[in-house]
Specification:
The strands form 3 sheets. This protein has a 5-stranded mixed beta sheet with strand order 5-3-4-8-9. Strands 1-2 form a two-stranded antiparallel ribbon. A hairpin with a 5-residue loop joins strand 1 and strand 2. About 40% of the residues are buried. It has about 325 residues and is α/β, with parallel strands linked by helices. The protein has 6 helices and 9 strands; from the N terminus they run ααααβββαββββββα. The radius of gyration is 25 Å and the shape is globular. The protein has one domain.
Length: about 325
């Protein structure tokens, strides 16, 4: 009598399969946060590199024309290629650095050789310029270079109504006293008397302000102890809607909260991480956890903790207050 061979077992039992699935689920659960952290670290590095390029462009501007980019006339004005640099330039720092970012073509759009006139050529080009995304103007942790709506439809004295515009995530250090910005003069015939004395006297403690020409020699606290450019605070609710009052116009306008920030000595003006439902307008800040990127006047970029001491943050925003600071905290 022949014996029957035992049946060989192929595959897994249900219990074994469930155990394998559970183990895979655990591994995926452990791996995903690590992948997300790695991606955020890469995005944060991209952001730091973009800020570095903006700082180097500003330093090249200072080296070439002997002062940092001007803050322009005010938020009723945008860049004009026929007006050069400094106090004659109605546009803000974002416009003046373009040639030093190898974007001279963007800077020269609308040039017609008529610096004292506002022409349709200039106005049409200004509108087009605002709708040209520039990759390193945007923090990749927050959004991508794109055109977004501008419901306010700001009308520039030397431009068209801006109903949509490219995005910009960085701001120049305007100092440790809130700059009471306004629309600026009504025409091109500008002198110092065209501006309110409160705009020009005592409040210009940063690197770029209304109608400014700040030289390297005026940064008496030391270039490694003075903010130049940093990330700006925005509320995530309006990253792409154009309804954030600090992110609602074109990116080349004169001094305004869209592209300038302050370091007043108060908890209100400390840098902050972007927070839904909360919309202060004069702060530095970013979407990154723990700290934001800031570029200093020596061209270096550093991470600044959101918990930085308010006085230290204030001193770093003032170019010549004589205060000794430490940013270890």
């Amino acid at each position: 009598m022949t014996r029957k061979k035992p049946l060989s077992r192929n595959g897994f039992t249900l219990v074994e399969l469930l155990v394998v699935i559970a183990i895979i689920g655990m591994l995926v659960g452990l791996l995903l946060p690590a992948v997300q952290q790695a991606r955020e670290a890469a995005r944060r590095m991209q952001c730091s590199n973009a800020l570095k390029q903006l700082a180097l462009a500003s330093l090249n501007h200072e080296s070439t024309v002997k002062y940092f980019p001007s803050g322009g006339y005010g938020w009723h004005w945008t860049g004009d290629p026929d007006r050069g640099f400094g106090k004659k330039q109605p546009g803000g720092w974002t416009y003046s650095v373009l040639p030093f970012l190898e974007l001279n073509g963007l800077y020269q759009m609308g040039a017609d050789g008529k610096p004292d006139e506002i022409t349709s050529t200039q106005q049409d080009a200004a509108y087009q310029r605002d709708q040209t995304p520039v990759s390193f103007f945007v923090c990749p942790s927050r959004r991508t270079p794109k055109i977004c709506p501008r419901p306010k439809k700001q009308v520039y004295t030397n431009g068209r109504a801006v109903d949509q515009a490219a995005l910009f995530d960085y701001a120049m250090n305007c100092g440790d006293k809130t700059q009471i910005t306004d629309g600026g003069p009504g025409n091109m015939n500008v002198t110092e008397s065209s501006f309110s004395s409160t705009l020009l006297s005592g409040n210009q403690t940063g690197i770029s302000c209304v109608y400014s020409q700040v030289t390297m020699g005026e940064v008496r606290d030391g270039t490694s102890n003075t903010y130049m450019i940093g990330e700006k605070y925005l509320t995530p609710d309006h990253y792409e809607t154009g309804n954030d009052s600090a992110d609602d116009m074109g990116i080349y306008e004169g001094c305004n909260i869209d592209t300038y920030r302050w370091t007043n000595n108060s908890q209100t003006y400390r840098p902050m991480q972007d927070r839904a439902g909360y919309g202060p307008t004069g702060n530095f800040g970013s979407p990154h956890a723990g700290s934001l990127n800031m570029a200093f006047c020596d061209g270096s970029t550093r991470s600044i903790s959101y918990s930085i001491d308010a006085e230290t943050h204030q001193y770093l925003g003032h170019r010549s207050d004589g205060k000794v600071v430490s940013i270890s905290n």
